[in-house]
């Protein structure tokens, strides 16, 4: 995922290493790629609770608390404000006054801010961030939701964001489904970094998630997947992929550029996998899930993470 830096962190950076309010990063240049993030954003990118991860289904623990979500405004096309080329991805800004998510084992209501997509290089080179038993999907869509009781996420607030991750799987159809055909039709209007197009009243988030059983998902605690990699995300990764035809997937890697139209296309904008470091991934109880209680392991992991966050906070000051 890719969100704005929080003010606290900017202050922190100013007082330590950086002279600017945001961390410049890249995905693919030699000498500037995800392996260098711990150096450019050492506070968090080198942490122990990072994302994305490979989900090992045999190690997933059952949790009865992971009930159905309640989605508000996902059927409302007026929630789409605009679509933007950020130079790193394509981001759709949402109306957080109309769109929110609750339930699903979340302790609070979260307001929907935006969604964006991670991809590889055409449908033949996969680019999802999370993987399941080593399987990488063609793309991954992240719906970013901020806890309703805060207006900006604090750098150390471990549940500030609830991000909903959806895998995109390639099919051999063409131009399917119609919702993704509509969404990708806007890409040719935003070829350059910073380009923005209003797209209100043309499609809904529900229509983009066609075919996904939204009661079946994985849950774990992790981080932003772009610098500064703050460990402030309650992750939900849905099991079912959205099925999108190859021709539409290809448009992401051959239409939008990292800067001007003379620069390369945005490709392979996904972060490398991060270590689990003892974290537990949970899911709804099923016949195949491991039903051993994971509460004590989870508590242990959380205590270590909290201690680390305090250390980092004081070191920063
Ligand atoms: C990423 O950067 C590192 C460090 O400069 C370099 O060794 C590596 O080859 C780069 N990888 C890619 C895929 O460019
Ligand atoms: C990241 O953590 C590893 C292991 O703790 C350490 O060896 C490495 O020096 C750290 N890198 C940075 C840039 O802090
Ligand atoms: C389920 O929720 C209850 C109440 O919030 C909590 O005490 C319990 O630890 C949770 N179970 C798991 C497996 O997280
Ligand atoms: C969205 O669904 C809700 C609840 O089912 C319904 O009340 C509302 O009218 C729907 N909105 C639109 C724009 O269809
Ligand atoms: C992406 O694929 C195209 C051909 O489909 C190729 O020309 C291009 O070099 C690839 N880009 C990267 C970064 O691998
Ligand atoms: C996060 O930092 C704020 C100060 O910016 C502090 O008041 C708060 O207690 C910290 N929270 C945690 C969970 O460390
Ligand atoms: C799509 O086509 C390729 C090659 O034509 C084939 O190998 C693959 O099995 C097809 N996939 C599906 C889901 O039909
Ligand atoms: C696609 O766009 C057309 C034209 O704006 C609209 O009529 C149709 O409802 C849209 N379909 C979906 C699934 O969003
Ligand atoms: C379930 O989890 C326990 C404890 O982590 C482990 O010892 C056991 O092998 C697992 N069982 C299965 C079927 O995965
Ligand atoms: Zn993302």
Automatic annotation (TrEMBL):
GO terms for cellular component: plasma membrane. This is Carbonic anhydrase. InterPro entries: CA_dom, CA_dom_sf, Carbonic_anhydrase_a-class, Carbonic_anhydrase_a-class_CS. It catalyses: hydrogencarbonate + H(+) = CO2 + H2O. It comes from Ictalurus punctatus (Channel catfish). Keywords: Glycoprotein, Lyase, Metal-binding, Signal, Zinc. Residues 23-285 form the Alpha-carbonic anhydrase domain. Reversible hydration of carbon dioxide. The gene is CA4. Its EC number is 4.2.1.1. It comes from the Eukaryota. Its cofactor is Zn(2+). Belongs to the alpha-carbonic anhydrase family. SUPFAM superfamilies: Carbonic anhydrase. Residues 1-19 form the signal peptide. GO terms for molecular function: carbonate dehydratase activity; zinc ion binding.
